[in-house]
Amino acid sequence: MALAQNLSSKWISVSEPHPHVLHVELARQARKPVNAFSSELWAEYGALLDKITHEGRDVRALVLSSALPKLFTAGIDIADLSKTETDFPDGARKSLSTYHHLKEFQHAIGAPERCSFPIIAAVHGLVVGLGIDIISACDIRYAAEGTQFTIKEVDVGLAADIGTLAYLPKAVGNQSLLREVAYTSRLFSAAEAERMGLLSTVVPGGREEVIAAALKLASVIASKSPIAVSSTKRILLHSRDHSASDNLEYTAAWNSAALQTNDIPETLRATKSRSAPAFVPLRKAAAKL
Amino acid sequence: MALAQNLSSKWISVSEPHPHVLHVELARQARKPVNAFSSELWAEYGALLDKITHEGRDVRALVLSSALPKLFTAGIDIADLSKTETDFPDGARKSLSTYHHLKEFQHAIGAPERCSFPIIAAVHGLVVGLGIDIISACDIRYAAEGTQFTIKEVDVGLAADIGTLAYLPKAVGNQSLLREVAYTSRLFSAAEAERMGLLSTVVPGGREEVIAAALKLASVIASKSPIAVSSTKRILLHSRDHSASDNLEYTAAWNSAALQTNDIPETLRATKSRSAPAFVPLRKAAAKL
Amino acid sequence: MALAQNLSSKWISVSEPHPHVLHVELARQARKPVNAFSSELWAEYGALLDKITHEGRDVRALVLSSALPKLFTAGIDIADLSKTETDFPDGARKSLSTYHHLKEFQHAIGAPERCSFPIIAAVHGLVVGLGIDIISACDIRYAAEGTQFTIKEVDVGLAADIGTLAYLPKAVGNQSLLREVAYTSRLFSAAEAERMGLLSTVVPGGREEVIAAALKLASVIASKSPIAVSSTKRILLHSRDHSASDNLEYTAAWNSAALQTNDIPETLRATKSRSAPAFVPLRKAAAKL
Amino acid sequence: MALAQNLSSKWISVSEPHPHVLHVELARQARKPVNAFSSELWAEYGALLDKITHEGRDVRALVLSSALPKLFTAGIDIADLSKTETDFPDGARKSLSTYHHLKEFQHAIGAPERCSFPIIAAVHGLVVGLGIDIISACDIRYAAEGTQFTIKEVDVGLAADIGTLAYLPKAVGNQSLLREVAYTSRLFSAAEAERMGLLSTVVPGGREEVIAAALKLASVIASKSPIAVSSTKRILLHSRDHSASDNLEYTAAWNSAALQTNDIPETLRATKSRSAPAFVPLRKAAAKL
Amino acid sequence: MALAQNLSSKWISVSEPHPHVLHVELARQARKPVNAFSSELWAEYGALLDKITHEGRDVRALVLSSALPKLFTAGIDIADLSKTETDFPDGARKSLSTYHHLKEFQHAIGAPERCSFPIIAAVHGLVVGLGIDIISACDIRYAAEGTQFTIKEVDVGLAADIGTLAYLPKAVGNQSLLREVAYTSRLFSAAEAERMGLLSTVVPGGREEVIAAALKLASVIASKSPIAVSSTKRILLHSRDHSASDNLEYTAAWNSAALQTNDIPETLRATKSRSAPAFVPLRKAAAKL
Amino acid sequence: MALAQNLSSKWISVSEPHPHVLHVELARQARKPVNAFSSELWAEYGALLDKITHEGRDVRALVLSSALPKLFTAGIDIADLSKTETDFPDGARKSLSTYHHLKEFQHAIGAPERCSFPIIAAVHGLVVGLGIDIISACDIRYAAEGTQFTIKEVDVGLAADIGTLAYLPKAVGNQSLLREVAYTSRLFSAAEAERMGLLSTVVPGGREEVIAAALKLASVIASKSPIAVSSTKRILLHSRDHSASDNLEYTAAWNSAALQTNDIPETLRATKSRSAPAFVPLRKAAAKL
């Protein structure tokens, strides 16, 4: 079965431009603002990533981008907010409903952390509000040179609650600048984002160039041992949230099993024979698809 | 009541240059070195910020700077150290006295974290020793281009113990450079500080320019929903000290209540009517002042 | 006794170029690739640092570099891996053996964190695989301008498990770029390393220049109070792995004792008399050597 | 709709003996040993609890017991283990498959922690292996006087990995006794279990008596405010895994919303009028069912 | 100055029945239910303990009891709740006000943890709601044999939020029983409380007997080295909230200073001379009072 | 080689009363008080346990007891304390020396946690001061019925700093009683210790009976799969210091490797054939001895 088969949906298109590499594009242009995220869209997004994981498809890297010419995403669809139920018996039950909604929303946007492969966000144009939550939960961020970002939530009267404030402070290296843009909702450029430590690199050009660069990176990652890459991802996520000594202990436990992989002799064999190594899928399920 | 009323004290002057914005200036010039912090001064500093919080004044952003032309602060007042009591019955009781003194000192300098609004440090000239502790506990740091910094404590024979080593490693993005300047007490420039991730930006010009830039930023923040800004600050402080999943859980609990604010419809109303939104104070007490 | 006496071993040479400063050079050139780390070498490396600490030698700063002209280290010695035992009664016992091996390996490479003095890694040429683990566990990193780095493990089929993924995410300020180089094993330059926040500085020139710069820094550190420097190191390591409030509490407890040092009056005396301060060793044992 | 409608399945029967109280009975007697847990059964068990939560059914307490006369559960179905796949390409991929299997298994058995209402385990006869994991994840444990327990895993050659060792040490008050029974797999009586702190109480009599006592407790809980009970459960689970100060902070955030409930005036009204209070369901969805 | 001087207030009487021992009695009998806690009373309670600490009075143990014949406390004063402000501009600001109220309330009830000396709660009669929060934050609990307890909050429609759920799970050894009484608000006896691990002992007799026993214990504690007792308290509080290894590290740092006390030679001297040791106060301030 | 060969030393005798079971007896009777721990003795004790682990001897359970008729240990040897060096250049260096001494001391007494097999302390007579630290770090505690315990440190002017306050609060189920005996240094009986949750059981009789009971338990443990027992110990130690979810994650990683053991089929084989299972040693080194 083709890797991308049955994955595209209403507003998300999925293709396999390189072996083991998926390209996921957000394409909600039917209404304005375009690529605005309704509940339906973010549920679709989370479900897509969980489906790939659940089915054990042999994906080894994924690029996330926008199909639209001018922006990555306009953030949350405000029109969608107005559909919120309002007739709750009391403030506590209303809060509880909000709490469960937020947990579900966070779960969907946090899906990249549950994938065994790296996800590269390739952004261009405008990245607004929820767009920042989305790319914060990805592994790697590439931006086209004209990209502009805004943590828009404060401008709408709320604190970002879907991941931006949980992931971003741990991903960047300038808390002063991060707080400045979080408190003001002001636009910040790709250059500022890079200075803050948000981006791997700023890619000269626009949408096509940044996607090309991200796909190239993805195909390099996809050529590596999936045991090595997925273990690295897991250990890095653990490292972010634990002390160095806790992480070393976890890593020793994890690698005591992971080192029993044929990918190690396979890389040695390939090096000696000057050929490309060939790695079997991580999970058997992949073979069945 | 004017927002800044009854806040100025012996060595600290407080004004309200923009609505909901306080400007706090350190101005201890009576003796040399100027702006050196005696116990009395840091107690005054902590008490000022706690008083604003306790009274629920409707402050939405605060700029901290020095009133003196050549430096932000010379750090701790060495003369003050010599007043330390010495006749303790034994080493344990002496240590206990020191411990309580340090806790009180840390509490005063950590006051910005107890404020519901952001604090922007606008520095120029020299920032020495305790000056680094002070700005490390602030939300945002702006420096004039000629500013020089020194973590002076090692040069005096001790480890920085009032906040520098607790806050700074979590605020910047280059631990190698941070350790270098912490171990050597050498001066480092605004450019190096920016490269380390300590500063939002280096402002061309001197004291006046950096204060003007900080006040401009403060007035932007002050125009935003105080529920949104204060929730963002609280969640960012929590994020620094907890895992991503712990923070997401806390954020969902917090925002389940905070989202029940009129600031959200008010921002939508203002956007539609192309007018500035008007937000009521966070706390009722503010109205009484 | 000379500070470096009896410290050199088979592949590691140790000298004392400045008072209280050790220079440790890796020099395993007998076989190819040079400076590849066998079990024997990393055990020697960890034992050297622990011996210095255990004997209480009056070391106040240490520079780690390579004696070879073209590289810092080629990483793990692959030939050494092939000596691994294979006839285990079952997979669990094999994993357990691997687990114990990894813990021992991590312990050796983590030795810099157990030293009371700062360790400065001065690198040039190639820094491969284990080389990254080694410098990640040091306090400060200097690189010659042509240096190239690679987190090589993924290319060999495994996740880095000796410290890179535990220490590095907490030392740098761009997780996106860190993950990119960790997932791809690609070479990255000193300039990229600096941008990531890995290096204090890039030193123009090659091996000699970077070592000279590091030794100069070491001699500055060695001129400071050893109580101040070692307390700063301890508190910074604690800060990395604990919340700000936990760290402030620990610091108050630690400094309540450390402030009872004569190094404080000695620095004041030296400042007044415009002479260099003289500090006694941290530990008595030092006197005996 | 009746509360228990559409919940019973192949080996689990569900009834509603009191308003808002579910009684869940394990009844896998088709084969020997009876009530042994196959993958199918534990998946069914986890799915049942998640379904109740997901549908927002107005359950306020749940009693879990066994329908069989002689035992609560025989633990894992050994026959099921033999179906495990064996032809993995290497040890790492086999371990990864095991890892994912364990996570799924843990997730199912940990379902009680995801329910908003308390779950009371009412056990009799033998409680073996997985039976301990299951009751450890419940809120409250009642045992008939003749009940015998065994942490059976060590006798089968493995450490308990589905919850016993994660939940139990935090639930009881005698780690010495807990380790003794964990290391030996020996049977321990209800009296010993009570002394260890595992049980609320030992109920005189057998299966019927313990179920009656648990249902009585459940109906008391079901008569209370669901906001109060579910908030208490959430805060207790948080308390187990966080420091006291972290928990106080979380509780203040949580209750700042939860206190806006009509359940508080409703309880006051009921007290004054000497009538039973009536509480609306926690979630709207409940009304639709 | 007598130790208890100027400490008694409107509803709290303070005496010094033994040297260095304070007896604090709650005596709010003016209205029904007696000893119900208004905001005024709990503020008074917290302020009393903080005043003792702040002034450095030479208190070495404190007994907390009720002056009333029939109960320890009736819990929160419901009449007081009705004074709560209600006209908030929106739900978020109302929640924020509640949040700040809860934090202040928790701070007052948590005051015993900020005292350097142990606090022994000696209870009799009924201990209701807030009474449980209060005794949970104390070091030691003694109860007269007829005492009855109830975690009353669920009966009023809320989760206990002032300390019961934060402190109690970490203080007792039977989470099943704790959850049972927390979910039901049912009365539980001193015998059950002891079985749960809540009490040091159940004292035969009533109010007078339990107070006598607690005072006797207090006078034993007061005869010990205050450095030893206060260090033990501090380390135990740290131990509750940190891992064993973190606690050992903190303890080594703390005791490296605390062991430099004359209390150690003083105890040896007293032992040899068969006399009672005499210890100087912990803090100098004590001498001045 | 016999399991106990070359393990006995000056004051510690080691034998192998059952296969894979070591009996370690403290026997320092040359001077008064007997079994008092000098630095030499505790260093010997820690080294013994680490030697067993390091050599990979096939020990599967260990019983620790005293060879003397009247007591387990008199605690620290006061005479030894007086040998402490006193001529430090300043208070900070003295504290640092103390700190390093305490860390080394804690490391020795914490050795049981580094053993892969359970350690059962079998105590009788008096258990004083350091004796409590020692048994707190063991897995299981048995006491003869007349045993008396005292946390003696407060009586000597210090807080227990070698493990009692780090391990005990997490091992027992009554913090009120624990604090009472920690603050008073009073003797408490085996019955009280059992009520507190400190002991698995109180064994009728004296020294011989409690040792016999402990050896019997040890031989049961030694008959089990060493993979199962050692994994259980490791996971229980992790569980004590981490959240439930962290522990479940670690357990899944650990057991993904540990489940690949032949001990599982071996137990099934033995069950079917009604014979005793035979397990190979955990580590190969064992075979060589």
Automatic annotation (TrEMBL), chains A, B, C, D, E, F:
Keywords: Fatty acid metabolism, Isomerase, Lipid metabolism. One of its GO terms (cellular component) is mitochondrion. CDD domains: crotonase-like. The keyword Hydrolase does not apply. SUPFAM superfamilies: ClpP/crotonase. GO terms for biological process: fatty acid metabolic process. The keyword Lipid metabolism applies. It comes from the Eukaryota. GO terms for molecular function: delta(3,5)-delta(2,4)-dienoyl-CoA isomerase activity. It holds the Pfam family ECH_1. Pathway: Lipid metabolism; fatty acid beta-oxidation. Belongs to the enoyl-CoA hydratase/isomerase family. PANTHER family: DELTA(3,5)-DELTA(2,4)-DIENOYL-COA ISOMERASE, MITOCHONDRIAL (PTHR43149:SF1), ENOYL-COA HYDRATASE (PTHR43149). This is ClpP/crotonase-like domain-containing protein. It comes from Mycena alexandri.
